[in-house]
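This part of the workshop introduces the protein records we will be handling. An example says more than a description, so a record of this kind follows:
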Amino acid sequence: MKPIHPAKRFLRHITSHPWQVRRYFSETALQHIEQAIADSERRHAGEVRVVIESGLPLSAIMQRLSPRQRAIQLFGQLNIWDTEHNNGVLIYLMLADRDVEIVADRGIHRHVGDRGWQHICRQMEEMFRSGQFEQGVTHGITAIGQHLADYFPPEAIPRNELSNHVLVL
């Protein structure tokens, strides 16, 4: 991601509001993403969570939180790290910074690594650049789901430890 001037970033964030997410993700698109999460989780024992944030809260802007730092913060706040097999994965979209971050718990991260997650992020960002927002997210869910299926096959008694609801901030 190309660095932007701090004042320009500040303006982007303070003028961003959650309702602006709807320009890129309709209610139907959010429902399709939630269904993609549910479909993916039937094929593995992992957990996927999607958070779309229009802009950072003022306190986070003042701290100069990067999208990566914010994603890690949300990973903890949403208890994505607290799954039975340490295989929770967060897809985080920061619209004001035009950034995608994937944060994965240690159980799956040790198999995929930073390069694997970055590859998925870049694919998603490429789709976003061409206006394919819903498809970009569902592609990310599918790619992450394949990694989870490789290392965490479905359990005999499936459980859903994390909400499949797309969190819009």
